[in-house]
């Protein structure tokens, strides 16, 4: 059965990139890219990712298996507009997705068909619609929310996310673009509960997978009051 | 050899308590306490913690072993003023530390000696001094930075932290007091690198332990440029 999943590489302090780069300067020289490349280094060094990009080399290890598993599980993608725009040139004629990608955007644009099975469909009527279209296109496989963080939060906020996997990279960045920012629409007395379903340790990155549940009121704990030992 | 360590329970989105409660209202009724009790629930349910508090019951499981291990490893504690003030009444005549506690504060106060080996020494000349005094008092065991988050950040920022353990609780709070906030004094092009040394999975909480290294410049990754397959 199709699940809606999100995987994101984050620093130990929760950033998936350095501070947001705006304007016309060179993105590659920006602090945003420096943070982004640090937290995704384990991906770029994975053989399975490099093969998808047509690059030689890389490591054949558990991280490479996890990248391959993510590609295999996804029957369709949902993506934010900024990520899609930023990737359009570097991904080239044969992007690594090999599946339909639904881009959430306010700007209408004609569908873009690339080689190798990847297409980009620009969805202007909201994240729920993009997820629904991706579900219909996924052929029974999963819908992967590719990012960025703002889109992952929108999907989480809308209660549409079934599974979240954080790839926690052992670095503290101190500043940057946070996956979890203050726009989840949670009341101060509730939380979104999750269940850990898989932990894969590795020196480069710790993979933490969760099933996402509903919002739940936070309950007080009585700290043992009334249960003193005799 | 004495290490300076910090252990903190945090939500998946990095909060160790709900939004900070200021003023005279009932802390137990605040959003801060609701978040705090959610992320520390695994501690209050651990038999080893309950025994230290004189409470009956609790679970004898891997989480209880980790609480016991933390108590055993600490020869002295460093603590923030707000945590020390907040704990003074609930911890009672025999606080759970059973070791010297050095409280970083601006307000001079006479040393407080409690039963069971716990004392509180109020240090007014800064975090470095408090850590040095705790080292001298630790008798070869570790110095544990007990919290709160602001103090952990000060110790990390000063380059004094050797080991960090996050107890990651499977809940998203959305808002609250963040362990990692924007006062680490890191340049946008550098990070604090860490090495994961232990991962202990459990349905209630994932224990992630790291050795802390120095600040390191973030390097760009060329994303495979120049290494295309023939």
TrEMBL record, chains A, B:
One of its GO terms (biological process) is riboflavin biosynthetic process. InterPro entries: DHFR-like_dom_sf, RibDG_C, Riboflavin_Biosynth_HTPR. Residues 3-183 form the Bacterial bifunctional deaminase-reductase C-terminal domain. GO terms for molecular function: 5-amino-6-(5-phosphoribosylamino)uracil reductase activity. This is Deaminase reductase. It comes from Micromonospora sonchi. The lineage of its organism: Bacteria, Bacillati, Actinomycetota, Actinomycetes, Micromonosporales.
């Amino acid at each position: 059965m199709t699940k809606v999943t999100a995987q994101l590489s984050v620093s130990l302090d929760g950033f998936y990139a350095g501070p947001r780069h705006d304007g016309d300067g060179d993105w590659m020289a920006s602090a945003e890219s420096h943070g982004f490349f640090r937290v995704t280094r384990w991906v770029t060094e994975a053989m399975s990712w490099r093969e998808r990009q047509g690059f030689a080399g890389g490591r054949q290890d558990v991280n490479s298996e996890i990248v391959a598993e993510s590609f295999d599980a996804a029957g369709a993608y949902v993506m934010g507009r900024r990520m899609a725009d930023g990737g359009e040139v570097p991904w080239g004629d044969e992007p690594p997705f090999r599946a339909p990608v639904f881009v959430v955007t306010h700007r209408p644009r004609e569908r873009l068909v690339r080689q190798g099975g990847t297409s980009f469909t620009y969805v202007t009527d909201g994240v729920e619609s993009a997820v629904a279209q991706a579900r219909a296109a996924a052929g029974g496989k999963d819908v992967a929310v590719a990012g960025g963080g703002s889109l992952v939060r929108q999907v989480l906020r809308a209660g549409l996310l079934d599974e979240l996997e954080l790839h926690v990279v052992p670095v503290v960045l101190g500043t940057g673009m946070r996956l979890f920012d203050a726009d989840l629409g949670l009341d101060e007395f509730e939380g979104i509960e999750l269940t850990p379903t898989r932990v894969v340790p590795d020196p480069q990155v710790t993979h933490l997978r969760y099933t996402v549940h509903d919002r739940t009121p936070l309950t007080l704990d009585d700290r043992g009051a009334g249960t003193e030992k005799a």
